[in-house]
Design brief:
The chain is mainly α. About 65% of the residues lie in helices and about 0% in strands. Among the domains are: about 10-55; about 60-140, no CATH class. The mean pLDDT is about 80.
Length: about 180
C-alpha cells in the first residue's frame, strides 16, 4: 500500500477515537432510552393534572361577565339606597307617619326618581304623588295619645281610708251604696 507506519498508526488512532466516541454516544442514548418510559409516564401525569386544572377553571370571559354583573348589581343597590333615603326624607317632610314609611316605600317606584351628579334626588315629586294618594290616611300630624281619662262616678269622693277609723269607713261604705241604689 505504500503508506508509512506512522501514518497508519495515526489513521488507526483517529479511527479508534471516532469509534470510542460513537460507543459513548450509544451508551448515553441507551441510558436515555431506558429512562424514556419513566419520563413519558411523568409527562402524561403532568399533562393529566394540567388538563384537570384547565377543566376546573372557568372561562375568563365568563368570569368577566359575572364580575360585571356583580358590579352592576352593587351599583344599582347603592343607587336605590340613595333614592330610598331621599324619598324617606321627603315623605317625612310632607308629614307622613314615620311608623308607616317602610310600608309606603315598599310600593314606591324608584325608577321615577333621578339622581344628579352629586347623588341628590331630582324629580322626586313624581314618586311622592302616587304614594300620597295611595296612603293618604298616613299623612298628617302624628300625635301620641295615652289611654282615655276616666272620670269618677258622681257622688262623694272616696274618703282617705288610711285616716279613718273602722266606724267611719263602714259608714262611708253604707252611704255610698245607699247613694248608688238611689240613682
Amino acid at each position: 500500500m505504500g503508506i508509512e507506519a506512522d501514518k497508519i498508526d495515526q489513521i488507526i488512532e483517529g479511527h479508534t477515537d471516532t469509534v470510542n466516541g460513537l460507543k459513548d454516544e450509544i451508551a448515553t442514548y441507551k441510558a436515555d432510552a431506558e429512562k424514556l418510559p419513566t419520563v413519558t409516564k411523568e409527562r402524561d401525569e403532568w399533562k393529566t393534572k394540567h388538563d384537570d386544572v384547565l377543566a376546573k377553571q372557568p372561562d375568563a370571559a365568563k368570569v368577566q361577565a359575572e364580575f360585571d354583573q356583580f358590579k352592576k348589581d352593587i351599583e344599582a343597590k347603592e343607587t336605590n339606597a340613595k333614592k330610598r333615603g331621599a324619598l324617606e326624607a321627603k315623605l317625612i317632610a310632607e308629614g307622613a307617619n314615620p311608623d308607616a314609611i317602610e310600608l309606603m316605600l315598599h310600593g314606591a317606584d324608584l325608577e321615577t326618581v333621578k339622581l344628579n351628579e352629586k347623588g341628590e334626588a331630582e324629580e322626586i315629586d313624581k314618586a311622592i304623588e302616587p304614594i300620597k294618594t295611595k296612603f293618604a290616611k298616613y299623612f298628617g300630624e302624628v300625635t301620641e295619645q295615652g289611654a282615655p281619662r276616666k272620670t269618677p262616678p258622681p257622688g262623694s269622693p272616696n274618703p282617705d281610708r288610711d285616716k279613718m277609723s273602722d266606724e267611719e269607713y263602714y259608714r262611708s261604705q253604707y252611704e255610698a251604696k245607699k247613694a248608688a241604689a238611689g240613682q
